[in-house]
Amino acid sequence: MMPNRLPSWRDNLYQQLLFRHCALCQLPLTQTEQYWCNHCITLFPNHPYCHHCGTTTLINVEDCGRCLSSPPRWQRLYRLGEYRPPLQQLVHQLKFYGKFWLAQPLAQQLARQITHPAPLLLPVPLHWRRYCQRGFNQSHQLALALGTIFKSRVDPHAFQRVRHTPSQQQLTKVQRQHNLHHAFKLRRQTLSDHVAIIDDVITTGATVHQLTQLLIQHGVKQIDIYTLCHTESSVN
């Protein structure tokens, strides 16, 4: 089982040897480039988006039309890009193929988007069954990397997933909300006024909505969402 920790010097040496060439185009990296070349990074699908819900928009806006009428209860969402190639493949490699070391370079790219880091980072938890299958929690790995960059505290045990649920894929927004009903509990009674929930992909926002509700009930004032990808989905 993969430990929940930041990469050691052995891991970093392995990464340097592995990524001497861009992991996407295979061209040699310059001394200032890591993991991916600057050209490939420009291919990440990073379009203007609503800074409240994460939906792609024509220009960057604080609130899209949907948020003006029915805003999410968190305050700010930061994303790296849309859930499309090449980010889609990178997230799949991180999440389903055990390439946990990708959390660090992906977090470095995401961190560039975050203007006011939260002092406390809370990764979305996995149920213990899924954790045993996967061997690690990708959201926790992202939180650890972001915590190192921002010098923020990471609490992987603040939330607990108390109910094992079927996969959220192919479910509508209403089905996802029902699927996650009473699936989480908050284990910490004392939290910072400003926290960020860390998730790898946001589709309908059902998961982070449930966690946001728990935080609001316990008096947290500002809740941000940090995610690698937002899925531009027709799921309703």
TrEMBL record:
Organism domain of life: Bacteria
Pfam families xrefs: Pribosyltran
Domain Phosphoribosyltransferase stretches: 162-231
SUPFAM superfamilies: PRTase-like
GO molecular function, one term: glycosyltransferase activity
Keywords: Glycosyltransferase, Transferase
Family, as annotated: Belongs to the ComF/GntX family.
Name of the featured protein: Amidophosphoribosyltransferase
Organism name: Photobacterium phosphoreum
